[in-house]
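BACKBONE GEOMETRY TOKENS:
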Amino acid sequence: MIEWKTSDGLVPYDEAVTFMEARAAAIAAGEASECIWLLEHPPLYTAGTSAKPDDLTDPDRFPVYPSKRGGQYTYHGPGQRVVYVMLDVGKRGHDVRRFVQDLEAWVIAALAEFNVTGEIRCGRVGVWVQRPEKTRTASGGVAEDKVAAIGIRLRKWVSFHGISINVEPDLDHFSGIVPCGITDYGVTSLVDLGLPVTMADVDVALRRSFEQVFGEPA
């Protein structure tokens, strides 16, 4: 059985990392069940293993935490649903690429509960939504904004870190970084898209769509 853990209030980042590392080790040792942790952080930036110093454009704005997850700079803060996934990837096929694709599919399925069409783009990590009402891109394409980010780490085939979905964060807080190193596209949220969605609504959608994507481990 997977333990679903939901925290009220804002969880300090260091506290979350300590919990994830301990739980991942316990799962790998067969001493604990898999866990999905739903939470919010106070405003902060994290630097993944591919983060470029120049992409931190306002280093004094919020605390910056080095992170051993994949990816570049990300923002976490109130109004953003962070989903930490401590899952046994070894029992789910030993396929990291497939696991990341499943995480993407999970986010897309949860967004579909609100009639939002999330999409994946080659070369751009995360989940995106088209914004035809916005100014078109320089290349003439339809404008797109990022609504969810994904970054994981594996240790002994157990994942930790995970997903962040923008429900109603202060989008200006993203301006202190180049999110995930991408400069040509914006960031949005479910509320920014005009949806009166709460954090509880997103949690229900995540739980409802999880099994249809992941099922049970072998």
Remarks:
- The radius of gyration is 17 Å.
- The chain has a mean pLDDT of 92.
